[in-house]
Amino acid sequence: MGGAARLRVPVGADAERWVTRAGCRRVLLVVHNVTSATRLLDVLPLFGGDVRLQLFATCTGSSPFLAGVVELLTGMGLPVLPWEQARETTFDLAVSASYGGELDEIRAELVVLSHGMGYNKRLAAPDDPERRSSAPVFGLSPDWLLRHGRPLAAATVLSHPEQLERLRASCPQAAPTAVLAGDPCYDRLIGALPQRELFRRALGVAPGQKLVVLSSTWSSRSLFGSVDAGEEDGADDLLPWLLSRLSTELPADEYRSVAVLHPNIWYGHGPGQVRAWLDHARRAGLAAVPPLDWWRQALVAADCVLGDHSSVTYYAAAIGIPVLLGAFPQDALDPRSPVAALGRTAPRLVRRGSLRAQIDAAIDAHEPGRYARFAEQASSSPGESAGLLRRLFYRLMGLPEPDGHAALLDPLPLPPHQPARRTAPVRVFTEVADGRTPEVAVVRHPVSGDAPDPVEGLAARAELAHTAVDEETRETGRLRVADVVLRQAPADDPRLGPPAAWTAEALARYPYCALAAYADGPDRCVVRTRQGDLLRLSADPGPDGRPDLCDPAAYASALHAWVASGRKVSEAVPRLVVRTGAVTRRVTVERLRPSPA
């Protein structure tokens, strides 16, 4: 079929009269749902720069997870064909990253890519658990690969020979269509590994902090579903416990947490509903990664991934990140698959005991080569998928590849700066020490609703304790009794600033507040004490000159503890040492001219 079709009727009736570039080869990107579209977006750059091609997109409409597809297709900026029109139009090439829908009716050389880490999951009806262990493996069985006994696709792209072995065993008729072409998603991940520190700073990870990524695939047996997550320890739903512990047990200045959820969770339940489920954790500092954005960057930046049987968890292990498995239904997987092998290897998360202790143990016990075999099985051609896939695409179209332009994938972009944002009240425990430079140890834990306090013993050991509350909190009643009231905004925000004015107003609004702090930068804040001191607290930059990304609220709490212990802020105290965990931070204390207020 390659070379037979030419662009004559792109979109809409009589459109052939209005095209500017006629005679282009036509390429159709077949979107099943948002999840499958992520892989199509990976390979889209392989068609870039070629004026001989015209790309189109369509959606089969067969997925139960269609929310978000319209917005995604619009964002791609390609002509979008209704499925009925796509089926009636001839193309030179069609690329799909999922099975489902009437793919056999597409008039083109069809290439099917995996939209995850190979093919691992068995698909059985949710109400038929007895068939789970014998259900066909999605993407490797005749149910998906054949139509009327013949292969559906001209090319079935696999990333590793182990998949080919399983394909030959389960559907030998389709084996001749197999093409080993690596994994573009994995290649983008390994290509971004040198950017790890950049990604960590973008995600607001301060020196000394550990980034914990909560990863879940979809389905009732996933970590986010948690139906079977607690089979081993008698629990029937791990998620509420896990979200509560992520929010309250992990010290705010020693851990940063990010949630990476499968697009089918976001769009199956609705983004508003997912945000509502994560509400307490988000207000305590958890960042929820949008379904198409920077989840890969979060993996590269992570210190530990709390995951399940998802491709994301496997990718994390393959790039050398410690993983701790929550839900992992082995009977839902092909036992010969690499993902199933990971489930038999990686440590399990249990309710018993401390979440922090389990995370730290997973990190401390991890060895660089622990998951080397999973990295090897992620791709047989690491770093080469772009060239292999483009060669396949152009061969099927009957076109020579573009001269002088290497096949390249887009690098992972640097995410926008995502500092932790806590509007839940924060309980702060401190210890103050005199010395040549005043020193305050600070441990901060968000308070999440009525959840049991996992750090109740800390209050007895701490010298001083107080409560800090962001003025944007939903729990407005806490502001009336807060010891420290906080704001985050640029210094020139006309609604709030300048900081000297807001801090004076805050002390007037909250008569029981001892200190008001206005954070106007990632490493600094202006504070006003009840005693009338107006001060700027600025953390020393790192050895490389970059700002310290520790939350400036920690410095405000340290100063409050210093004053609350009976000590005074004087000209003789120009610096303050703040300890958060094992990290020592030096903070300059600059006296400002008080405002007329």
Separation of the first and last Cα atoms: 79 Å
| Overall 3D shape | elongated
Alpha-beta classification: alpha/beta
Beta percentage is 15-25%
Major sheet: arrangement of strands: 15-16-22-23-21-20-19-18-17
User: What is the count of DSSP helices, taking H or I runs of 4+ residues?
Assistant: 20
Give the uncertain stretches in residue-range form.
1-10, 229-235
Radius of gyration: 28 Å
Average pLDDT figure: 89
> Helix content range of the residues, please?
25-40%
**Mind summarizing the main beta sheet?**
9 strands, mixed, barrel
Question: How many β-strand runs?
Answer: 23
Description:
The protein has 20 helices and 23 strands. Strand 6 (146-147) and strand 7 (150-151) form a beta hairpin. Helix 9 crosses helix 10 and helix 13 packs across helix 16 (372-378). It is of the alpha/beta class. Mean pLDDT is 89; it is low at 1-10 and 229-235. It is elongated, with a radius of gyration of 28 Å.
Write the SSE topology:
Blueprint lengths: L24 E7 L2 H10 L9 E7 L9 H8 L3 E2 L1 H6 L1 E7 L10 E6 L29 H4 E2 L2 E2 L3 E4 L2 H10 L7 E3 L3 H9 L3 H7 L7 E7 L21 H11 L6 E7 L1 H7 L1 H7 L1 H5 L3 E2 L6 H7 L2 E4 L3 H8 L4 E3 L12 H8 L9 H11 L6 H7 L6 H13 L28 E8 L5 E8 L9 H6 L2 E7 L13 E5 L10 H11 L5 E7 L2 E6 L4 E6 L12 H13 L10 E6 L2 E9 L6
Parallel strand pairs: 1-2, 1-4, 2-3, 4-5, 5-8, 8-9, 10-11, 10-13, 11-12, 13-14, 16-22, 17-18, 18-19
Antiparallel strand pairs: 6-7, 15-16, 15-17, 19-20, 20-21, 21-23, 22-23
Helix pairs in contact: 7-12, 9-10, 13-16
